[in-house]
Description:
This protein is an alpha/beta fold. It has one domain. 42% of the residues lie in helices and 16% in strands. The protein has helices at 9-26, 30-48, 53-63, 69-91, 98-104, 110-116, 157-167, 180-186, 230-238, 273-288, and strands spanning 105-107, 122-126, 145-151, 172-176, 196-202, 218-220, 223-225, 242-244, 247-251, 254-257, 260-263. The strands form three sheets. Strands 4-3-5-2-8-11 form a six-stranded mixed sheet, with helices on one face. It has a three-stranded mixed sheet with strand order 1-10-9. α1 packs across α7, α2 (30-48) packs across α4 (69-91) and α3 (53-63) packs across α4 (69-91). The longest helix is centred in the N-terminal third of the chain and has 23 residues, at 69-91. It is globular.
Amino acid sequence: MIKISELTFFQRVALELLWGFTWCISVSPYWFKFYVLEPVLYFGLCHLLRYRRAVVEENLRRAFPEKSDEERERIKRGFYHNLAEVIIGTLNMVHLTDRKIRRYFSMHDFDTMKRAMPDEHIIVLFAHHGLWELGAFWAMDDPTHESLGVYHQLSSKVMDLFYQRLRTTPYSTPVQKKESMRFLLLHRQEGVRGRKMAMGLVADQHPNIPILPDTRWYRFLNQDTVFFDGGEQLAMRYGMPAYFAPMRRIARGRYEMAFEMIYDGKEQVEKHEITERYVQRLEQMIRRDPELWMWSHRRWKHQRHAEN
Length: 308
């Protein structure tokens, strides 16, 4: 994990200027952020920069061949609105009091979920759907769990430290992906800040792994797709219950999340079964609200070659 001491003087200045600018946005009124800045940002991303438009259109064409051009165009415009909202909503996290968090984020039927949740370490599988960064705040009403956000280190030290600050809250701790196993083993007995660990993994990214003959492919949005299986490996190795965390948009900048158990930590399952359950629920969520997924990601870099 990058430390502030590793930055040069000018990088530190850039970090503080970025944080100060973002803080100004965060403390501005709700209507200004989501009814002024967001539409302006949408117009810039969609019509001026045309941000990754070719990637978005190709992904939608391949994922929804059954839809008309007009339907895919509607989803595309909705995606750019969502992308603008994700950017504004993420910046909004720089200054969030408990009262403001409850305004922007809630858990569906949390009391029932909490009663069913075991008092042990768990895995939570997220996706790039809606304003997923808000998922770190689910633990604010759960004094028994610490939310651990597993992330990939960014190439920019300034941006990496910016996101570290953003994701460090009284309820959550960011953990770099390459350190996650060591972190889990180190805190497995005592937990983090006296609480059990809820290791959050955004599992729908394109995995940077070599494609081998025995690589597992999953059928996902009409594509043969490779998925991370780190969550499954941790769940099965350490008997940790695994949850899928679907997110639904309530209004501009406001989201509701739920937990769906996909593995109880004890069930005897075949290899890849937990990931398969995640993939199925992820596709259901995307088909329900397709504009909320990150279609600009190059999700299908790898192609499965036909077997002889």
